[in-house]
Design goal:
Order of helices and strands: HEEHHE
Helix content: 10-25%
Shape: globular
Number of helices: 3
Largest sheet: 3 strands, mixed
Radius of gyration: 16 Å
Strand content: 15-25%
């Protein structure tokens, strides 16, 4: 998964960077951002796909569980607790950061869905 499946410092930015090519990229997947949309025209139908980051549900308040990507015990094993400018700056900040990301995505969806002219609109979570 895009956070290594276990910690918010799990190279999510590298997953996005891998999408855009460069050394070592094979083009196996497409994840151009934490959330994005794509329109696809099939033979007889069009679809607007909306891809949402749902890691909010794995971003728990400082619980040392295996599926908590904000787990302070795991974060303590890292050289830094910060994702830099683009993510949580500490385990304590992590749950709120993912909640804010979720709220931004909901606003984005509220803006885009009424503008869709596709036959189908499909939400894909990751």
């Amino acid at each position: 998964h895009d956070y290594g499946g276990w910690m918010y410092l799990g190279a999510w930015d590298q997953v996005i960077g891998y999408t855009w090519g460069g050394p070592g990229s094979t083009g196996r997947w497409m994840m151009p951002a934490q959330y994005w949309a794509a329109k696809v025209h099939y033979d007889d139908v069009s679809v607007d796909y909306y891809f949402l980051d749902t890691n909010l549900f794995d971003a728990q308040d400082l619980k040392p569980s295996g599926h908590n990507i904000c787990n302070p015990t795991k974060v303590a094993m890292s050289f830094s607790a910060s994702c830099g400018k683009s993510g949580p700056f500490s385990a304590e900040h992590c749950p709120g950061w993912f909640k804010e990301l979720w709220n931004k995505q909901k606003g984005w969806m509220d803006y885009l869905l009424p503008k869709s002219t596709a036959d189908w609109q499909i939400v894909v979570t990751h």
